[in-house]
Amino acid sequence: MIRRVGRPGLVGLAARTAVVAGTANAMENRQMNRRAAAAEQQQAAAAYQQQQMDQAAQAAVAAQAAAAPVPAPVAAAPAVDVTEQLLKLADLHNAGVLSDDEFAAAKAKLLG
Fold first, then answer.
1. Using 50, 70 and 90 to split pLDDT, how confident is the model at 9?
2. Is the confidence at residue 37, as pLDDT, over 90?
3. Stretch 96-106: mean pLDDT
């Protein structure tokens, strides 16, 4: 057999080209996978940070609501003793201070 020294043959050149192209594709895929993994990791970190901020905001709102002063109960107006008022009206009517119509109107107003 005769062997050529120097340049490779057509099959050798094709094989070398295939190896180079395959290596380049593998390296490109590896780099794309690394970038995708880094992007996913950044998204997960951003989501975690947003979740932490939301929880902190909810805790602050809850703490503020818990610390808010409770309004003092409104003092109820003193209860009007209807019987006492009617007796006073009757006394005024009997004394002649109130007429029959005035007494009837005041009594109707008091009784609602």
1. confident
2. yes
3. 88
Q: Alpha helix (H) ranges present in the chain?
A: 10-67, 82-94, 100-111
Q: Report whether 88 contacts 110 (CB < 8 A).
A: no
Closest residue by Cα to residue 85 from 66, 61, 104, 111? 111
Q: What is the pLDDT of residue 66?
A: 78
The structure tokens listed for 63 are 């703490």
d(C-alpha 5, C-alpha 20), whole Å: 22
Q: How many whole angstroms separate alpha carbon 56 and alpha carbon 51?
A: 9
Distance CA 102, CA 23 (A): 112
Query: For 5, phi and psi rounded to 5 degrees?
Result: -110, 135
Q: Are 61 and 82 in contact (CB under 8 A)?
A: no
Residue in 52, 104, 110, 66 with CA at minimum distance from that of residue 85:
110
